[in-house]
Amino acid sequence: MNFAQPSSVLIVDDEAGIRTALRVNFARNGWTVETASGVTEAARLLESKEFHLVVSDMRMPDGNGLEVMRSARKVSPSTAVILLTAFGSVPDAVQAMRGGAFDYLTKPVSFEQLEEAAARVMQPVKDAIRPDTSDTGSIVGRAPQLLRAISRARAASSTDADVLVEAESGTGKELLARFIHEASNRARKPFIAVNCAAVPEHLLESELFGHARGAFTGATTAKPGKFELANGGTLLLDEIGEMPLNLQPKLLRALQEREFERLGETRSIKVDIRVIATTNVNLASMVDEGKFRSDLYYRLNVIPLSIPALKDRAGDIELLANYFVEKFAAKLGGPAPRLSAEFVDRLNAHNWPGNVRELGNFMRRVCSLHPSVLLDADCFDQEFQTRTKAIPAAASAPLVIAGAPIRQLERVHLENTLAMTQGNRTQAAEMLGISIRTMRNRIREYGLPPRRYA
Ligand SMILES: Nc1ncnc2c1ncn2[C@@H]1O[C@H](COP(=O)(O)OP(=O)(O)OP(=O)(O)O)[C@@H](O)[C@H]1O
């Protein structure tokens, strides 16, 4: 099925006046417009033609906008859907985002607002590239899937709902969480991050909820937890899949009631926060395996967001490589080297299992070891070989035959790298461009002997 040309939009609303007004305005801006008066008619049109954009009212006599969105998804997952929700209806807005809407707008909607949202569907590039060289708040990229994630994050930021970001390690989950915070009306309040995998299990409860003086050995003073410190702002629960099962009921209650007690205290503390949780393991399968409570999963997953892996973002590898080169050059105070076409080809040919973090680390190494005006194929090869060379012949991992499952390849790559670093996980994680906790997760997942990789 081909897209109707040029930019095509389907307007779904039971009010004829709104349909006409939107038809006229979209057409004036060069869009090809079709309209439907309800869910059934919309479904019929969606089956006959593919649209770039669907703008649908949320509540209609024969159904709702979520059903229109489902019909669109079924035939064309790439069609963006903007839902128009009733003024002040937070549940509608949250439902729209949960259902995967590109954006939602609150009625009464001005055509300018709608055109602005629609423009993001069609011309998202300039919107997403921010020439900011600080470590936060700048999400570089223009791949459509990334832009969609950013748009959804922007839409989520104007609700107060909790968000769950599921994506591979190093794809920018924390960056997206900061983006949501900064775009929200909590921006002037604290953004507090807790890495659930990095805090030792026995300290996590007090880290999150605080403790009274004397609550446990070593608790010489009372201390507030991250929930309290984030009051008014946003709490990031990074690597939520690492939350121990015994702590999950207390976390669930804190999320539901926004109320908890410090360890060793009976007084309840109330907070006003937005929680963003991130994970690079599939939480739904952890629920199936009984490792994560389903009620907590559903409570966290109010607005699901995902970020595509770097290898699936055509064009972004070069863009990011240039961004990192400029960033390092700015730090060192010199001009940024250019990337030769061969260098870029080689970058594009690699599959970056550690995603943007791995690319950033690689570019930093290349820039510091090859101070030249042009980074060419040789620079790439030398640096890449240094990373992958010297896998000891004795490495116990078997050879991988072409066509073997990717996971097998990853396992072997991991084993080889760990063998190369004599089992030093931190060093191996740095080389692979993944975080130490991802390394820990993979070692566990693949059942590699933990003591060898201390
Ligand atoms: N689109 C991007 N533009 C610029 N920098 C990025 C982008 N994505 C990621 N980065 C950078 O890559 C590094 C890793 O990003 P981040 O920590 O947000 O990833 P993550 O998915 O949370 O990783 P992990 O799961 O390992 O915690 C950071 O230095 C971040 O600034």
Features:
454 residues, alpha/beta, Rossmann fold, Helicase, Ruva Protein, domain 3, 4 domains, five-stranded parallel sheet, 15% strand, disordered N terminus, binds adenosine-5'-triphosphate, Sig_transdc_resp-reg_receiver, sequence-specific DNA binding, P-loop_NTPase, DNA-binding, phosphoprotein
Textual characterization of the structure:
This protein has 454 residues and is α/β, with parallel strands linked by helices. The protein has four domains: 8-123, Response regulator (Rossmann fold), CATH 3.40.50.2300; 144-306, P-loop containing nucleotide triphosphate hydrolases (Rossmann fold); 310-388, Orthogonal Bundle (Helicase, Ruva Protein, domain 3), CATH 1.10.8; 406-453, Homeodomain-like (Arc Repressor Mutant, subunit A), CATH 1.10.10.60. It is built from 20 helices and 18 strands. The protein has helices spanning 16-28, 39-48, 65-75, 90-98, 111-122, 125-128, 144-157, 173-183, 201-209, 226-229, 248-257, 283-288, 294-300, 316-332, 341-349, 355-369, 377-388, 406-420, 425-432, 436-445, and strands at 8-12, 32-36, 53-57, 59-60, 63-64, 80-85, 103-106, 163-166, 191-195, 210-211, 223-224, 234-238, 259-261, 268-270, 274-279, 303-306, 338-339, 374-375. The chain has a five-stranded parallel sheet, with helices on both faces. The chain has a five-stranded parallel sheet with strand order 9-12-15-8-16. A two-stranded antiparallel ribbon has the order 4-5. Helix 15 (341-349) packs parallel to helix 17 (377-388). The longest helix has 17 residues, at 316-332. The N and C termini lie far apart (53 Å). Bound molecules: adenosine-5'-triphosphate. Adenosine-5'-triphosphate (ATP) binds at residues 135, 138-141, 167, 169-175, 238, 278, 280, 356-357, 360, 435, 438. Adenosine-5'-triphosphate is lined by residues 135, 138-141, 167, 169-175, 238, 278, 280, 356-357, 360, 435, 438. Residues 8-122 form the Response regulatory domain. The modification 4-aspartylphosphate is found at residue 57. InterPro entries: AAA+_ATPase, AAA_lid_NorR, CheY-like_superfamily, Homeodomain-like_sf, HTH_Fis, P-loop_NTPase, Sig_transdc_resp-reg_receiver, Sigma_54_int.
